[in-house]
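A student in our group prepared the protein record below, which I am reviewing. This is what I was given:
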Amino acid sequence: MTATQETVKLTGRQAGPVELTVAEAGAGRPYLLLHGGGGPQTVAAFAGLLSNQARVITPTHPGFAGTPRPDKLASVAGLAALYAALLDEMGLTDVTVVGNSIGGWIAAEMALVRSPRVGSVVLVDATGIEVPGHPAADFFSLTLDQVSQLSYHDPVKFGIDLATLPPAVQAAMPGNRASLAVYAGTTFADPHLAGRLSGVTVPALVVWGDADRIVDPDYGRAYAAAIPGAQFRLLAATGHLPQIETPDQLLAAITEFAGVLQAGDAAR
């Protein structure tokens, strides 16, 4: 389904005016789809797949893909507040927030914002917590090839060849990396997040690739254990980017989760 894209001007609670690039496709139940450090292109194909059965809103984190980032917008919590403001601006309700990698961290923070517009969250190989004995990979010390090796079950098939990327994507990569460092810091974690997750009150699904070596499955299990009532789903032959490597598995997990929630709503 063809997506439309627009620039939305918002006032962040701490960041001031923010120009936010937002793509949208599909109709029906609303999903907010949040990309990881690889940029919006890492979720674009999956947004199209999900939009066959739902309304999918996909923002570009300010600073990624050549977009401007206000200096005051410098944390994951700030992004979570910004996206809560976006849901307010769009007048959406019962939104399922789906995030991969740092996008999953943002989704977790959105669950803690207590926005009445967020109905549930799906954390897909999310970063953000500290798990003793299971640290996130030291992303900023790795080459692109090394990141690919750790990110995919089958890096030969799905790994990135920089030379084949469109020039615009190549040009945006340094800005993506710099913005990621600002938002996530060097450790990709908030030492207090795991403890704060006990305050999540919306339904949560934690989805993890069984071959993820950026943040391993035990890290994912710890994430789910920190959220009251969260479900944990392990995807076979899948790395850190299920939306690219096994999109049908990820879609099935999200669809099943949504079906359970809708059945619960109907029974009340």
